[in-house]
Amino acid sequence: MYLFRGEFGCMLYTGDFRWEPTNTRAQIGRSMLHNAIGNDKVDILYLDNTYCNPSYSFPSREVAAKQVVDVIASHPDHDIVIGIDSLGKEDLLLHIARVLKMKIWVWPERLQIMHLLGFHDIFTTKISQTRVRAVPRYSFSIDTLEGLNIMRPTIGIMPSGLPWVVRPFEGNNNIFGLSPSSFHHRSKLSAKAQSFACIQNLNEDSRAVEKYHEYIYTVPYSDHSCFEEIKEFVKLVRPTNMKGIVASSFSYVDPLYYFGRLLGANLQSKRLNQNFERKGGERVEAVHTKSTLENDNSAEARMKRKTREGDLLGVHVSRVSILRRIRCGAKILELD
Asked: Which of 188, 235, 247, 300 gets the most CB atoms within 10 Å of its CB?
């Protein structure tokens, strides 16, 4: 995280972060954050709001990593393909390598990154040395897994906190000797993927491993905080104001909608005056402006309409547009 102090006040930028209460590293980070802030009040918090929605609840990375290992161990005769990004999930891959005592294949560019991070003896680009491969997320698909299974039994694992598909997989549900606990409706994917998904509990205290296809599992492993972790972090920092650093996502909600009541008194009073709600502030402004202009098309009304426009870097932007951009979170402003 980055903490800035100056004439502008005290600003805290989280970047992507995971606030796990039981994790030893998180406890060290909590202590470091306390010492860094000291007695200062954080005037504005730029928050990782990737999962800023109560629907996102998943276990700690320690639990999720164990789930990944359990899936791999339950398929001793299969090759394993794990979908990852160009950066991130290193701790998960290290855990798999350490517990299963095997190297992990990565593509050449990813191997260079691993070497830069100091991991020299755990990863390889030689397929013959391991049955576990970490592949780019964009290449992880049902078609890919079906093609690989023509040559050799292979399963895919997608570590992610995001939901994947819509309908449950209607195959053998008793993969780990446990019956499926529930089914979830998911976001749109491809028509092919929508006919698959099944949910199975590996741990009573965590979100289930989900089987979305005959060859594909997803495990709720994420380097972003879930909703409850974000809430605990905001309670601890108690900033005067905050903005989300993710301006668009699967189910984007301005963090003020859920956590505004946890902020300082000054912002609370401002929010009461604004009558803020999930999209209400923007909608009220738009409706109010529209009704005023529709009811009065006089020259005076046209003059008032012009005064409602803000002059930003020489370009006129409507008040509604400005408010919309402000409430979408911290991002580079695009001019209409």
From this structure: 247
